[in-house]
Amino acid sequence: MRPIGKYIAALLFLILMMASALHAGQSTTSVVKIFVTANPTDYYRPWQSLGIRGASGSGSIIKGNKILTNAHVIADQTFIQVRKDADPKKYTAKVLAMGHDCDLAILTVDDPQFFEGTSPLEFGGLPKLQDAVSVLGYPEGGDMLSITEGVVSRVEVTAYSQSNRKLLTVQIDAAINPGNSGGPVVQDGKFVGVAMQVYQAGQNIGYMIPVPIIEHFLNDLDDGKYDGFPVLGIDFNNTENTTLRNFYKIKNENGGILVTRVLPFSPAVDRLKEGDVVLEISGVPIGEDGTFAFRGKERLIMSHLITEKQIGEEIPLKVMREGKIKNISVTLKPFATLVPYPRYYKKPPYFIYGGMVFTVLTSDLLRSWGNEWWEKAPLDFNYYLLGSGRLNRQGRNDLVVILDVLSDDINAGYHEYGDDIIETVNGKKFNSFKEFVLLINEIKRKVKFTVIETEHKVQVILDNEKIDVVDQEIIKRNSIPSQFSNDVAEWLKK
Question: Mean pLDDT over residues 265-282, rounded?
Fold first, then answer.
């Protein structure tokens, strides 16, 4: 390119950025600062919290006198206030809806004065590569509205840090800093996304939640409740290997992915089988690498064709099974993984028996090990989230774990136990935390000893005589408000 060509290209880029900034400036009446008082749960001590703390974020006014922001901005909130740009007054806000899987939340303000002088943002579309965008919000380090410029560098399916769910994202190089979260990303004066997260290991790599995900979230709420984004419930391999394609008799078909596992309780149960080759989803051909054509030469992973649907919808699949083409319809019903995604338990269930603290294994519990929890948390726990244990071959609803031992004579010799998965109680298996609690309660009334065995064949034997009195002494001595969580209390009543 000649020097004059470079200057023209640079000038055009500058003009685009200036136009984007001008349009962004016209959107400032729709941007709010959010002040949050939060009290997060201590998942390792599930009867208590981690303490009250303050935080701030950003949000956008959308139609219906609603404020759209990130779920992680208001997670664990006990009190929320919002403030408009150039307005010194703060207004009390309340949560209308929250979706941790897509990291989105809806707030509103009862005082109608708050919305005077504001205008809801008009939704745009999904930006293209190299499109100029502006990020508006209130990053830490200042109290005034900030506007940063950038371009779209990638459109792909990426894991959301709030939930680990893989959904559509847009990568941008505009600066996104703490406090920007929840703020709008605009293009030509239209709302095209919500600033969400940054990639810490890189420079100027930020992510926004695009309009298709936002609209899915809002449409989901039309019936007054949030169901979330669906999954099909399969593990799969690519079919790039020629011998593999010949073995599964797909050499005369293009593309396709090989179903290697159908997860228990998932929508795919009784509809798909191991060894099936999925060739099309909703009439869209699936490539041999598991991607599909998107907007011309772009490609996305096939899971997007599932997550763009709503829970309850049927999705048609073209499948090759044992060399024959079959058309299968799958109803996308709610599905929870064996180890629930982060934030899927607002308050974790717990049960203290003989001074032993029991709860359910969740991603939230694993995160209580802090930064790099995937290296610090017990290997056995991560096996069920990150390893092949996630396939849930035993078809369990919950994994019950012994977290800790509250020292007492009744559990002498077991004080070092903890961070282990419970396998049986008096030789009986169970599939859920509720079954575990009721099984212990039944055994306590019928026999003298309760024998709890872990996956490592470690046995904890407790004397049931006067164990209720001992437990009350233990929880009083340790300043624990209750022997069990509210849901467990309800199970025991019944």
Answer: 96
